[in-house]
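Posted in: Protein Modeling Q&A

I'm a second-year student putting together a small comparison for a lab meeting, and my supervisor asked me to include a predicted structure for Putative hemin transport system permease protein HrtB. I've never done this before, so apologies if this is the wrong subforum. The sequence is pasted below exactly as I got it from our records. If anyone can share the structure token output, I'd also love a short note on what stands out.
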Amino acid sequence: MSLFRLTLRNVLHRRFLSLLTVCAVAITVAFIVLLTLSRESVEQGAKKGYGPFDLVIGAAGSETQLVLNTFYHIGAPTGNIPLAVLDQAKQDKSVDQAFAMTTGDNFKGFPIVGMDSGYFFTRYGDSKLQEGVMYTRTGETIVGAYVAESLGLKVGDTFSGAHGLVQEQAHESAEAEHGENHGSGEHDEEHDEEHAHESFHYTVAGILPELHTPDDRAVFTTVDYAWAVHELAPEDREITAVLVKPASLLGAHDLKQALDGNNGVQAAYTSKAVSDVLNAVDQGSRLLSVLTAICVLLAGIAILLSLIAAVGERTKDVGLLRLLGKSRVYVWLTLTSEGLLVTAAGLIFGLLLGHLGAYLLKDALFAQAGIQIEPYHWTPEHWLIVAGALSIGLLSSLGPAFRMYRMHPLSLFKS
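Accepted answer (user: helix_wrangler)
Welcome! Here is the predicted structure, written out as tokens:
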């Protein structure tokens, strides 16, 4: 009987214990694979999330909140700033490109973002739309590929937006259902605002191609959409942020110094705010790394216990093999190959399970944070996972195998 057939027969003889060991290895490998893919996706998504815009200008507050809302469409804006800030940024010689952004409304949970159409050509080059044309008039929109797919939007469709975040609207509805009293003036103001949004209709002029950035899950329109919805006079018009592509890093520094802290305006380095977010993610990853190490230890113990049980069951079988002339090396290989076979089976199932988990979570992760996880991506760390898993299987096998290797065949048979 060949070594492989003997090893396979021994594994199948203890089906339940072998299955538990395979599951322990598979769950550990799947957890590590999912963690690896998620961490890489977060890092890559964060780096390419803001494109060439190294500086962002917005209302005073949290720099991280400003950057996340502007580029990743997460959370609420820090506030509004005067429209004159845009003119000041465009007139600065150290600025290559500057684009105004207005936001604060949503359509079925997806943010409606007012943005100059030049933003797309500056950030993505001359990439064509998937369908339709770029917006040119107030009320025309182009929608991200993820939004169009999720909501089934097509060119020519019309819709009405809603003010603020969906969570805020749900909270207000809950308060109304519980009969909380509001002043008549406040009630009328909220009613007028809701009516203004419902009466203003958007038309889908085009659909963006898959950009693999947070812009895939946003609805874009002209900057003046918010002014049109609320019928604001020219002197009352404000913007949410200014996205700046500086001509040089020194120019970005000078513009930041000129604007930061003046009249409730802040200028933030995009890369610094993103680095702060990644540092927070890294701290969470360290905690997960500890849990991963515990899982790896438990998987190694499971393999060790499985082989110890195998040694106890097959003592006489091994003694008989030795009396029939099989060498100590053959006996040693039967046990180590069993450990490697169980580990390899768990490794294969773990890799498949980890990538399946990434596939199932990719939409949820993208919907919440705009991070695109690649479930079919094979990273260099995968090779480390394979080598590490097989090494743990081999090391766990050495103890029981060495114990059988040292014993005399007669003592093995008599025991």
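A couple of things worth pointing out for your meeting: The two ends are 24 Å apart (CA to CA). Residues 61-161+200-260 form one domain.
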